[in-house]
Amino acid sequence: MVGRIIETDQDVAEGAAWLASVEPRFAWALERTGPLPLRRRPDGFAELFSAIVSQQVSTASARAIWARVEALGAVTPDAVLACGEEGLRGCGLSRQKVAYALGLAGSGLDFAALRRKPDAEVVADLVQLRGVGTWTAEIYAMFSLGRADVFAPGDLALQDATHRLFGLEARPGERALRALSLDWSPWRSVAARLLWSYYRISSGREGVT
């Protein structure tokens, strides 16, 4: 069963109001962050390919590489396969990411079908692809599919923000944060938006972009 889908700023505001009503520390943080961003993105091959490009590189590097990919027109499975390893390497992709890109292009993944699948199935399908880990799958579900109750507890910025906001003795690991986030259901993706916004103002750095 597909749950609530975040489509508009009003949906985000609804989720933020609910979180503030059940957790005083979220209410306190929301007063400081102001309205939370929608962060909706398109879904499909290009968006997932872009997420792979962005892994383990700076935001500036990811944008530069992706701009070259777009200039080459390598934003569809057929175009990526036509470019081949040499063309993708010319965009600045590492050999490993070239392999991931070609694997994704040849996977035959039905992106439209993902829209109809429950959150857990979406993540399970995506992590079967080389180069797509749990974090990338959860980010895709949150922002490209608009799922309201998905969280990304492996994200270091979310871990750090939770540590700061909740006054924890140590930064929670992925398992601990996943357990903690259950209290924020059914609006866990809005909780993530709030924690990323709080991370930005409390650390002076960006989480996801």
Characterize the quaternary organization of these chains.
Answer: single chain
Low-confidence stretches: none
Helix content: 55-70%
Nearest-integer average pLDDT: 95
What fraction of residues sit in β-strands? under 5%
Tertiary shape:
globular
What is the number of strand segments?
Answer: 0
Largest sheet: none
Helix segment count? 12
What's the CATH H-level homologous superfamily of the largest domain?
Answer: Hypothetical protein, domain 2
CATH class of the largest domain: Mainly Alpha
Q: What Rg is obtained from the alpha carbons, in whole angstroms?
A: 18 Å
Please indicate the count of domains. Answer: 2
CATH topology description of the largest domain: Endonuclease III, domain 1
CATH architecture name of the largest domain: Orthogonal Bundle
How far apart the termini lie comes to 29 Å
Strand-pairing-aware structural class: mainly alpha
Order of helices and strands: HHHHHHHHHHHH
